[in-house]
Amino acid sequence: MKKWLLFPLAVLIFLGITYWGIGKIQYRLNVMDVEEYEPLSTLRVSENLPTRAKFPFIDVHNHQWTMPIQDLDKLVEDMDALNMAVMVNLSGFRGKYLEWSLDNVKDHLDDRFAIFLNLNFEELDDDGWPDNTLSMMEEAVKQGVKGLKVYKGLGLSDKDNQGNRIAIDDPRLDPIWAKCGELGIPILIHSGEPAAFWQKKDKFNERWLELKQYPSRYRSPEKYPSFEEVMAEQHHVFRKHRGTTFINAHLGWFGNDLDRLGQLFDEMPNVYTELGAVLAELGRQPRNAYKWLIKYQDRVMMGKDIYKKEEYYTYFRVLETDDEYFDYYRKRHAHWKMYGLNLPDSVLKKVYYQNALKLIPGLDISLFE
Predict the structure, then answer these.
(1) 62 - beta bridge partners?
(2) How far apart are CA 131 and CA 122, in angstroms?
(3) How many Cβ atoms are within 10 Å of 18's Cβ, its own excluded?
(4) Residue 194 in contact with residue 215, Cβ under 8 Å?
(5) How many angstroms separate the CA atoms of 93 and 235, rounded?
(6) Least confident range of 26-30, 150-154, 234-238, 306-310
């Protein structure tokens, strides 16, 4: 009798395990990576999709790597469509490359482009430093250079002749910062990376996807100084050279902590910032970002970073509209949704062009009348 009871019980157990196993298989077959997950929102709200800025703007953070040989006429067509009056090419480099870039601009529309100089800070132990570099800077400004761009290698990977990391506030660089103040040109300086690049690469890191796609962007504590150390070095330079104008790139990597960036502005009137590649930080906190931009409307400028025409549309949408719950253009920078700030025209004009006109010398004001 017991044997007859055991058999159906075994069958039930077998069927239960089979059902559980099939469920697991079905679940696994539907698993997808966050890179693949692209849900279509069912939300139905009004949409505004601007493809042209409401006012002419200056992009203070752009990179045109082939400017010496580039067909700038085609680029100007794009700029006209976007209502971009002036593009700042931060990748002017130096020497012949710089000369050829300036020549190409002068042969086309000289008033539509501004070129920044780049220096090799790893020469700071070489014979002739800093005099040769200072002379080069003076000559570059005479040729038409509008500013100095400092890349993130300074403070992270640039090394002196002894193989030591060059700190951003290394006193051997003081003559460079002072010379920019003397020449009346701004320094657009990119120091460090998002703080998340130093954090553990796990499910709690909101830049996990970017670190997965670009593992080299992880800042291991064994190889790099900490985020706070890099920021402290940069801010020390700002304090030490109050007669020089600094444009702190990418919201100074404090787009996720606007109060802290505001404190920096309150302390240092020579420091400004721009929106290149960090618009998503403002788009996810529309109420806070709106209040902050109203308060610091004289300190923020339009910037994009890597050039792609269609990506400007998201900038216009965030800054100009009151749209809700829409996508950023690059998931690895923002897996969250955007919300429009609907800034007043008076603030938009400052962000789009008025602030930059105050800082970058020799721009054509008539482009904005």
Answers:
(1) 89, 305
(2) 15
(3) 10
(4) no
(5) 25
(6) 26-30
Q: Return the pLDDT at 6.
A: 66
Mean pLDDT of the chain: 94
Instruction: Record the tokens describing residue 266, joined without a space.
Output: 């309150």
Give me the helix-helix angle, 131-143 and 174-183, nearest 10°. Answer: 30
92: three-class secondary structure by DSSP? coil
Task: Tell me if the pTM is above 0.90.
Answer: yes
Residue 88 has pLDDT above 90, yes or no: yes
Cα 136 versus chain centre, distance: 28
Per residue in 106-115, pLDDT (tens digit) is 876 889 999 9
286 within 8 A of 251, measured Cβ to Cβ: no
Please give the CATH number for the structural domain made up of 57-368. Answer: 3.20.20.140
Q: Sorting pLDDT into bands at 50, 70 and 90, what band is 2? A: low
Q: Which amino acid is at 312?
A: Y
Give the C-alpha separation, 188 to 63, whole Å: 13
Counts of helices then strands in the chain (DSSP H, E): 13, 10
What does the pLDDT read at residue 280?
Answer: 98
Contact 163, 231 (CB under 8 A): no
Q: What is the DSSP string of 31-67?
A: ---TTT--PPP---------SS-SS-EEEEEE--TTT
Give CA–CA dist 288/293, Å, rounded: 9
Q: Tell me how far apart the alpha carbons of residues 238 and 315 are, in angstroms, rounded to a whole number.
A: 28
CA distance 234 to 249: 11
Strand partners, 187: 148, 246
Signed CA dihedral, 280, 286, 290, 292: sign only: negative
Reading the block at residue 35, the tokens are: 């890179």
* 8 A C-beta contact, residue 92 and residue 68: no
